[in-house]
Write a structure and sequence with these properties.
It contains 5 helices and 5 strands, in the order ααβαβββαβα. With about 170 residues, the protein is α+β, with helices and mostly antiparallel strands. The longest helix has about 30 residues.
Length: about 170
């Protein structure tokens, strides 16, 4: 993505979608991220929780969470590099950026791991959505309480390019 931005920074009407599977299982990150979350665990690797009720020992739960936190730190670092590229390449003046995710993940909250064998808890359903558009810069920096759904994203992208969604499109 960084190379794409570098090569296309002066081009018009491009679209780049990044999908990073990290933050999903298996929770592995380079040691420089893992070092911040050492637990002292000496047992087998705990980097993939079962989808279901928490049955692990507290120390195992702590290790699973630590590995997850390390992966989140890695993702945070990568997003920071992307934002730094927007600064360095002066993309904020003419480039929209949307950051979101598909779902949350339970790390023992409500006595469950993961996302799909339990009620739809807030930790699973309440996902981040960050949107920057230079034409809306005066409205930035705030939080909205409006309900948004991922089904709204394709129509939003079309709107950013001044295109009408087809009649069959929902969202």
């Amino acid at each position: 993505a960084l190379e794409f931005l570098e090569l296309n920074r002066a081009a018009d009407r491009w679209f780049l979608q990044l999908e990073t599977f990290n933050r999903h299982e298996q929770f592995t990150a380079p040691e420089r991220f893992r070092a911040r979350f050492k637990t002292g665990w000496n047992g087998p690797i705990r980097d993939w929780p079962r989808y279901g009720r928490v049955e692990e020992l507290p120390e195992e739960c702590e290790e699973l969470r630590a590995n997850y936190y390390a992966v989140v730190a890695l993702c945070d670092d990568l997003l920071g590099r992307l934002l730094d590229a927007f600064d360095r390449l002066d993309l904020w003046k003419d480039t929209a950026l949307l950051v979101t995710t598909d779902h949350g993940f339970l790390l023992g909250e409500h006595d469950f791991w993961a996302k799909n064998r339990m009620s739809l808890y807030e930790e699973i359903a309440h996902i981040p959505l960050f949107l920057w558009h230079p034409g809306l810069a005066g409205r930035g920096g705030g939080r909205r309480r409006a309900l948004t759904q991922t089904i709204d994203l394709p129509a939003t992208f079309l709107d950013l390019f001044g295109l009408q969604p087809p009649p069959s499109m929902q969202g």
